[in-house]
Amino acid sequence: MASIGHVAVGMALGRYETGAGAPWRRRVAVMAFLSLLALLPDADVVAFALRIPYAATWGHRGASHSFVFAAAVALAVAALARWKGESATRWGLLTLAAVASHGILDTLTDGGLGAALFWPFSNARVFAPVRPLPVAPIGAGMLSARGLYVSGVEFLVFLPAWVYALWPRKKARAAGSVQVP
What we know:
By secondary structure, this protein is an all-alpha fold. The chain has helices at residues 3-18, 24-39, 46-49, 67-83, 88-106, 145-157, 159-166. The protein has one domain (3-166). Helices cover 51% and strands 0% of the residues.
């Protein structure tokens, strides 16, 4: 899967988190942070440079795409949130949703080996019963016609998330204000 869908999920979660009254800078920061968390499992592409086989536990779409990995990252972010005086529960759940969504979305692609969602309990790579998303080429292959096609399909599939995340918000009305038609 190209990164477009993963970023869209992070952006939509950021919009949900910040609500209508948050300042612009906070909205952007939260959307960027949750988008980075949604992309985090793909940091495993470093395995290719380290010559770790694709099918290995720490290969691409391996352990970093699991629910256990997502839970570990969520616990770390929750601890950081508590230390910063934020809601640990809320940030833990947002992080869990962002990171876990990555592996789930990757199971919807039509190629690769699947995702190790249930690691460490199982090393099996799984796919969803329905796989509507074309698998993205890795690396420079994204600059090919195939990469452009995959990006276009993914953009269209995740367009509702992008619209939700980026649609302008209505300004909150001040108490007692009169609205002129």
